[in-house]
Amino acid sequence: MKTIFSVLQSFFKKPFRYAICFAVILTGFSIYVILDTFIIEKVYAVLGESQYETTDVEEYTEAIAKIIEPVITDMSYLDENIALKIEKFDENGVVFYVADVKISDAKYLKTALPGGVFGKNVVARTSSMAKESNAIFAINGDYCTFKNTGVIMRNGEILRVRPRRQERCGLVIDENGDLMIFEENDLTTEKLEEIKAVQCFSFGPTLIVDGKININETEIAKDRNPRTAIGQVGPLHYIFIVVDGRTKLSKGMKFPDLAKELEKRGCFIAYNLDGGGSSTMWFNGKVVNSPNDGSFAGERKISDIIYIAGGV
Fold this sequence. Notes:
312 residues; five-stranded antiparallel β-sheet; 8 helices
């Protein structure tokens, strides 16, 4: 009986059989290399599996979101695009709130109208508009529908070009998020397009221009009142101030004092917005300050807000 060894020995005695076997082995190996490189699937690791014990795509996405979710306290907010900090001050019988805000893109600085409507007597509370807009932070605007004059633009849409009769200045925010001051008589439709305006407010007075306080004698003489103002420190860096007033706890602030608060925080430009009972600061679902018009405590219904958007 022949053994396997003797069979193989007799097989390889015939010419070229070594070469044929070698060729078959070489071809098979080459095919395997090609399949291994381009066809055969290999799993080196399942991302998130060891950390989150899941291979479900939706669950993994949610797990990642938890890592980068915002850090929020009662007076601050921080995520990859927005850094916001609010401080409360009680000095010399005046209570006021300062919000220092830095954003990564001008798209996070927005405005809102009640239900998106620009019209006479169309009003809502700051908190309502903020929630409707998915805002993180908001202040009252210039109550743009209270009067029928003034150059008004919101989120890139020109709503009214009717300069106030007296020489008054408007605040413009351009597509880069930069604040600029112009005399309203110069703010034509063509001018707004030329300077790439996105927002335009009609109130005042101007508080700071080119890093210097800009208050005239008439404005200096005005009484203490609740105030709201916006200023810019640098690219996409803003200061918002809301002052309480007309109460036993806070007597309000005069324009020069308001301008000094903005100046000492580094603002090179600043503008006063609607005040009195309109002055409201809202953050993360609640009103931060104590709005009061002297006869009514609580939020006043107004026509517009400025806000920092979440989830843009």
